[in-house]
Amino acid sequence: MRPTIVRMICVTLRSDDVLALARWLTEVLGLTAGHVSPGHAELFWGDGAVLLGPRTADDPWDTGRAVTYLVLDDPDSHHARVVAAGGDVVQELTDQDYGSREFAVRDAEGNRWSFGTYRPTAPGLRWDEPGILTM
């Protein structure tokens, strides 16, 4: 029987130096490195992930607060549900150039909650199809 993951949560942080922070998180805290570059890093703790991106002056995501990314298979229906519930949408549904369909909302404390189809993959694992993670 193949292991399956229906939903996955990933923490996203902005950094002044993605490579240095990724190195510290792997070397000091023991996270496992996936893809790491100056513009993007994927670090894993079990089957959870921390995504790092560079801090820039005009970055709408650098709020000084947490940005949390949650993976789901159907962002369109979830977006409709969030809007109907009065969610404060800060990014409408967007097809990203890296293949994800995403939207984001702001909570009452200013944190961003982003939902999308992009699935970071830990070394040694692969997505055979949405919701099916195989070793």
UniProtKB/TrEMBL annotation:
It comes from the Bacteria. Residues 7-118 form the VOC domain. It holds the Pfam family Glyoxalase. This is Putative glyoxalase superfamily protein PhnB. It comes from Actinomycetospora corticicola.
